[in-house]
Amino acid sequence: MEAFGKPGLPPTWASSDKDRVGTALGTSRLWFTLGHGILNEVFWPSVGRPQIRDLGFLVAREGFWAEVKRVARYRILEEDPASPLVEVVHEGEGYRLHLAFVPDPRRDALLIGFRLEGEGFRLYPLLAPHLGGSGLGNTAWVEAGALLAQKGEEALALVGPFTRGSAGYVGFSDGWQDFAKNGAMTWTFPRAEDGNVALMGEVREAKGTLALAFATTPEGAKTLAKSALAEGLEAVRARVRALWQGVLEGLDLEGPDPELQALARRSFLVLKAHEDRTYPGALVASLSVPWGNTRDDPGGYHLVWTRDAVEAAFAHLALGREEEVRTALTYLAATQAEDGHWPQNFFPEGRPYWGGIQLDEAALPVLLAAALKERGGLPEAVRAMVRRAAGFLAREGPVSPQDRWEENPGLSPFTLAATVAALAAAALYGFLAGEEAEYALSLADCWNARIEEWTFVEGTSLDLAHGTRGHYVRLAPPGPLGLRGRVEVRNRVGVSLEPAALVGLEFLELVRLGLRPPDDPRVLDSLRLADALLRVETPTGFFYHRYPEDGYGEHEDGRPFDGTGRGRAWPLLTGERGMAAFLLGEDPLPYLRSMAGGTGRGGLIPEQVWDGAPIPERNLLPGKPTGSAQPLVWAHAEYLKLYLAWTRGKAPPERLGRVAERYLSGRGTPRVRHFRREVPLEALAPGERLLVEERRPFVLHLGFDGWKGVRDVESEPLPFGLHGVLLDLEGHETLEFTLYYPEEGRWEGKDYRVRRR
Predict the structure, then answer these.
(1) pLDDT tens readout for residues 228-239
(2) How far apart are CA 388 and CA 750, in angstroms?
(3) Where in the numbering of this chain does the GH15-like domain appear (predicted)?
């Protein structure tokens, strides 16, 4: 009898609500996730390639059956929060199911030990292959003692003590539908081809081991699975334990609070479990797909975002694990574009996914390289990487095509802080020399001095309402209107706001990097406003929204984000706010406890927590994870950095001594103002000179004091492929000019005017 319902329902991924992530280390190229007490996505042969949606379990006896995931009564038992070795115990009406998940360090295989207690019960594993990173086009079949699937040159085998099996199409002839319609396993379809397929097997033994393995052929997958079974669960478990104990040697996370210490150790596991082994240093944002149970997203969060990867590397640096930092930097050197930037995100092998550009993603690797250089040696290739990145920042800044939330172009305090610090660090730490170093430092000084001009507002209605004099905005849009313009709110159709209404925590990077003192009145006013407008109190702790009117999150009724929604509260922002409190001399403990309170059932920190009324039927509870990514590596990195600040008194690892000393001491006062059309300058202070610069050759048509003494000056080459004309207004009140581009044979078409203060 043929399986029916081809090709099956449209595929989706598992819920992003993970209980645990893990990997064996060793030579294995397999990563696994657990969610709702069962196996979710398994990644092979890299952290960027999920191969199954899930492997769940039904238990049944005469007249009764249950899917343990839906019953959702389970406990997670861990040997050590920093170990991937976990067991899950499910309990239900008359049964108890013990599951142990043990990745094989030497094979691309995962062993699953099971023990089912309960009179007359049998176990029915239910596997949903998504080979090649998609539920489309899979073929599944049954052999004696094995359930198999293949798509192209990717195959899997689930091997165990099966007495029979069935292959079907999801939503029609799969094993779950069989139980739902017939109350038992009555179908034994031998094969289901080219569709969204599922496999079910019957296990009559009450105790045993299953092996899930991956290879380029079904035969190879079976061989790996059988080899792992032959070695035995306990022997493989001992190998995993020994490997992780070696990695954990010297890891000092002792602290006075056992719960917070456990989360710190678990955070270290999260960081290590998200790094690829085929491409060492490739660290993805999350082994999950946000709202994955509602969509078939080929990218998900299992992609490398340079920003997230560097944030994790900084956490490693705070832990003193310099080898992980060197590995991250050499990987970044290999994936950098020739012009110095990195793609918005990319698969571990370096293949771009989205096409946006964010200046902070070019700046943060420079800060990481300089921080490592402060502590010791640096691979030579990284020096060249820094020079390319600094050149990109110098050419393309200060306006970023995207902010750190990947939503809008403009001038953001976070991106500006990272860019200024990176340019200064490239010069101050010897990555640049001669004219390049002088130019980068001059540009950093100029842009640093203009951050408030670009992103600070005063006397707004928000300030009047909250007793503040002014505040930093999340983002000022590009263009001549600047802070008087409007910003389109992504994920909210037809909604735009004036920049003053876009309150965010981006300005905290100015303090973290040492560009502004933590008690700067402008910082303190902005903190007061952010606490009033963005902070959300929940039963588990307090968290922060990204900005008012955010649309990235579930709808008010709990429906998943579908391109529109309402942004929820972010634990990582609680971490950022906590670091600001630490730098102000306050106790960061309440912030750590909030982050710990917002974790999921398995103790992982999510991207967002629910901040509305409880909706139990959608598993949305105040202060607990939403359907967004869980875990989020960036959030765990922020937790580790804040935990070390609390327990060790450590300053943020991103803060560079020479950069902070320059700007906190006032030595970074600009002597040259860099004029760019994107950020025109209105006035020069006494003693300052003006450098009009462009990304291509030009002729400056200029005059003084109302176009007197008109003349043309050809631009000269500047470092990093730029071109400019350096001018002095001494003896004049105003300078008027326009630009002509000889290579294009056209005028700029706009006159500019700069006055003396």
Answers:
(1) 999 999 999 999
(2) 32
(3) 266-327, 350-641
